[in-house]
Design brief:
Length: about 170
């Protein structure tokens, strides 16, 4: 009887842990990953969740202008490079970073945070490795789910709603 109770308790704990972790594929903001090796041999990978616009306005209703945003949903978006690089001309060592941003109508601040393995809303500015400022522009077409693209030149593009934000990794 004690063994049965112990096994039942272990099973309940395991079920509870699984429920807390959740099935990433069943979340409202599904997981996505993009990876590209540039013409200079730098592998850029971005592991993120894709929030949807759902009739809201980027910068107002979601990802409000002037406030730190997790640049995705769920866990922190993970930005990884396999070599030391320059982002918009500023040095970033090889490694993994939490990717955050401060959206703005005329300028976005892209933030590479040293703490990458955490829930997306647990941001600490003291852990920033690098911040770069970039100009947003109108996307060529509307994108319902936030999407990253990386091309061979090292241009990283974040597309969401009618916004596109690009930054260069070399």
């Amino acid at each position: 009887m004690k063994k049965l109770l112990l096994l039942s308790a272990i099973a309940l704990v395991a079920i509870g842990v699984r429920a807390q972790q959740g099935d990433k594929s069943q979340r409202p903001s599904p997981p996505a990953k993009v990876s590209e090796t540039t013409s200079k041999g730098v592998t850029i990978s971005i592991d993120y969740s894709q929030p949807a616009v759902k009739g809201r306005e980027v910068g107002k209703d979601i990802a409000p202008y002037g406030k730190v945003w997790r640049t995705g949903a769920n866990e922190a978006t993970v930005f990884e490079v396999n070599k030391d690089v320059k982002v918009e001309g500023k040095s970033l060592p090889a490694g993994k970073y939490g990717l955050y941003s401060i959206p703005g109508k005329d300028e976005w601040v892209i933030i590479f945070n040293k703490t990458w393995k955490q829930w997306g809303t647990n941001y600490t500015e003291a852990d920033d490795a690098l911040r770069v400022n970039v100009k947003p522009h109108k996307a060529p077409s509307f994108t319902e789910r936030m999407t990253f693209a990386v091309d061979k030149s090292g241009k990283v593009s974040l597309m969401w709603g009618n916004e596109e934000v690009d930054f260069k990794v070399q």
